C-alpha cells in the first residue's frame, strides 16, 4: 500500500472522467519543503508564516523573512507559492520580549481566540505587516507568489490590507527594488462572517481558501485547543458543511478559485464532498497528499456531486457521519 502511494508521486490527480485537481502542500517553515516535494505537491497552498515569528525573543527582520520566502519560492521552481500574512495571536502568540519590541509588553488576552489575531493583529501593529509585505513582494520577483489574508470578515479588511500592499509596492518602487507583477490577493474563509459576506468579498479578492480548522471553531463556538469542549468541535456538523457549500457555490459561480486548506482537506473520506461542491484545489499536510490523490483517481465527478447534495440534506452530525461511512464503503 505504502509503496503504491509513493508511486503516485508523478501521477497527476484527476478523476475518472478526467477532471483535474490541484494538490498543494501546507508548510510552516522552509524545513517542511522536502516532505512537500516527496509527496509530489504541485505548489504551496498555505505557508503559515507566523511560525517565523514564534519561539524567539525578537522579530524576524525584513531580510530574514525575504530569505525564508525566497528559499520556498526557489525550491518550488515555478510552481505557485501561497504566502499567508502572519496569523499571530490566539494559540500562536508572540513572546513577551517580541511584544515589548512592538511597544506592547503588557498586553494580556483574556479570550485569545476572540482577541487580536490574524489580520486584526497585523492591523494593530501595521509596522509588522509592512515589513512582512515588503519581504514577500521582494521575494516575488523569483517566482509566482500569491498573498493570502487570514481572518477576513469584511471588504473593509481587504481594503486595509490592499492599501498596505500598495504602500509597500510604492516604497519598493522608490527604493528601486524589484517585485513580481500580477500578485493575486486571496482571503481565508474561516470566520462565519466571511461566508455571510461572500458575495461582497468575491469582487475584491482574487481567490479564496477555506480554513476549516477555524471555521469549525467559530461556527460552533468551540475553542479548537480546549479538550473540555473537544466533543463539540465537529467537522461533520451540518452547519459547517452548509457554510463550506455556500462559500463554494458562490465563489465557483463567480468563476473564481476556492480551495480548502484546513485539516478537513486531508480527509479522503471528504474528498468527494469538496469536489462535488466544485473545489478543484486542495491544500494539506504533505503526508495526506498520496491518500487523497489515490481517492481522486477513483472519483466520478457526477457521483461526487450527488454525494455532496446528499450530505447537505442531513440534519445531524450523526447522520452526516453515517452517510460518509456508507459512501466510504464503496471504495473498500
Ligand atoms: C484553518 O483555520 O483551517 C487554517 C488552515 O489555518 P490555521 O490552522 O493556521 O489557523
Ligand atoms: Mg485558521
Automatic annotation (TrEMBL):
Its main location: cytoplasm. It is found in: Cytoplasm. Keywords: Cytoplasm, Kinase, Magnesium, Metal-binding, Phosphotransferase system, Pyruvate, Sugar transport, Transferase, Transport. Its cofactor is Mg(2+). It catalyses: L-histidyl-[protein] + phosphoenolpyruvate = N(pros)-phospho-L-histidyl-[protein] + pyruvate. It comes from the Bacteria. Its EC number is 2.7.3.9. GO terms for molecular function: kinase activity; metal ion binding; phosphoenolpyruvate-protein phosphotransferase activity. Residues 6-300 form the PEP-utilising enzyme C-terminal domain. Phosphoenolpyruvate binds at residues 48, 84, 213-214, 224. The keyword Metal-binding applies. Mg(2+) binds at residues 190, 214. The active site is at residue 261. One of its GO terms (cellular component) is cytoplasm. One of its GO terms (biological process) is phosphoenolpyruvate-dependent sugar phosphotransferase system. Belongs to the PEP-utilizing enzyme family. General (non sugar-specific) component of the phosphoenolpyruvate-dependent sugar phosphotransferase system (sugar PTS). This major carbohydrate active-transport system catalyzes the phosphorylation of incoming sugar substrates concomitantly with their translocation across the cell membrane. Enzyme I transfers the phosphoryl group from phosphoenolpyruvate (PEP) to the phosphoryl carrier protein (HPr). This is Phosphoenolpyruvate-protein phosphotransferase. The gene is ptsI.
